[in-house]
Amino acid sequence: MKTRLALFVSIASATLAMVIVVTVGITLWQSQSPQKTVRSIATATGVKIGGPFVLTNHNGQEVTEAAFSGSYMLIYFGYSFCPDVCPTELQNIAVAMDELGKHAERVTPVFITVDPARDTVAFIKDYVEAFHPKMVGLTGPQENIDKAARSYRVFYAKVDDASSTEYLMDHTSYVYLMGPDGKFVTMFGANTPPEEIAAAVVQDIKERS
Ligand code: NI
């Protein structure tokens, strides 16, 4: 009996110890900010997000990533015919810009279309201006869009609908925060509250100063 009791006690304490380790681990993991987690995952896996591009802005000028050098960018890939997700995310970016107050001077919101066939210069001009006066719309030849999207790990595909002349696009929906050095800072999933986006920008500004 004594050995059984001893065995029970040692199994019970081992189990308890494991539960404590796992609980503490999960608590520590959850207490990290999600942005920090995303950043460290990107760093740890060596996945490079972002890169050079040659696109046309909503005023018809050819621009590269160099045009945004020195400014933070909040980049979103989508398309202006998108019925729901894109307008919501662009609105969130616009609200984040307002939340930023004076810091907004240092940030450029950027909308890059994945549907250049319909998102012409004139079209995206009206579209971005409806969201925020500082928002820059970018379009361009399909191959340039493809290259930019690839560097941001953005996937998209036309959804064919035989019953309609219009079409939808499936696409990944992330907001990317790029630093004033043009390098990836963090990214936000769909429906991230604008306050959280603004807070991440402010945090990074503080870290760099
Ligand atoms: Ni969309």
If you had to describe this structure to a student in words, what would you say it looks like?
By secondary structure, the protein is an alpha+beta fold. It has a single domain, classed as Glutaredoxin, CATH 3.40.30.10. The chain contains 6 helices and 9 strands. The strands form 2 sheets. The chain has a 7-stranded mixed β-sheet. A two-stranded antiparallel ribbon has the order 6-7. Helix 3 crosses helix 6 (194-208). The radius of gyration is 22 Å and the shape is globular. 31% of the residues are buried. The mean pLDDT is 89.
Please tell me the total number of domains: 1
Biggest sheet record: 7 strands, mixed
Percentage of residues assigned to helices = 40-55%
Mean pLDDT: 89
Strand content: 15-25%
- Structural class call reads alpha+beta
The CATH superfamily is Glutaredoxin
Shape: globular
Unreliable residue stretches: none
Which hetero ligands occur in this complex? nickel (II) ion
CATH C-level class:
Alpha Beta
Report the count of strand segments: 9
> Distance N terminus to C terminus?
67 Å
CATH architectural designation:
3-Layer(aba) Sandwich
Radius of gyration in whole Å, from Cα?
22 Å
Order of helices and strands: HHEEEHEHEHEEEEH
List the SSEs and their pairings:
Elements (H helix, E strand, L loop, with lengths): L1 H30 L2 H12 L8 E4 L4 E3 L7 E7 L6 H15 L7 E7 L7 H11 L4 E4 L2 H10 L4 E4 L8 E4 L2 E5 L5 E6 L4 H15 L1
Parallel strand pairs: 3-4, 4-5
Antiparallel strand pairs: 1-2, 1-5, 3-8, 6-7, 8-9
Helix pairs in contact: 3-6
The structure holds nickel (II) ion (NI).
